């Protein structure tokens, strides 16, 4: 593995952990907001949409980091 490839993989793994952390934070925020009296439906929808986008980005990075299986 070249230094450039190693740096790219390291960068992707770092970004993956950041996205996972943000995803967990959004999950907690959504849970708190949905339990609050007078929920803010618009904010809830925005947070859920952001969480879904993060999930998609996480899946894409995981796919990049998963080695191809040999047939």
UniProtKB/TrEMBL annotation:
<feature type="coiled-coil region">
    <location>
        <begin position="2"/>
        <end position="64"/>
    </location>
</feature>
<keyword id="KW-0175">Coiled coil</keyword>
<protein>
    <recommendedName>
        <fullName>DUF465 domain-containing protein</fullName>
    </recommendedName>
</protein>
<dbReference type="InterPro" id="IPR007420">
    <property type="entry name" value="DUF465"/>
</dbReference>
<dbReference type="InterPro" id="IPR038444">
    <property type="entry name" value="DUF465_sf"/>
</dbReference>
<dbReference type="Pfam" id="PF04325">
    <property type="entry name" value="DUF465"/>
</dbReference>
């Amino acid at each position: 593995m070249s230094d450039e490839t190693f740096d790219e993989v390291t960068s992707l793994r770092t970004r993956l952990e950041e996205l996972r952390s943000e995803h967990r934070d959004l999950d907690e925020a959504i849970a708190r907001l949905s339990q609050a009296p007078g929920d803010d439906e618009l904010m809830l929808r925005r947070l859920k949409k952001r969480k879904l986008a993060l999930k998609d980005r996480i899946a894409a990075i995981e796919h990049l980091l998963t080695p191809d299986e040999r047939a």
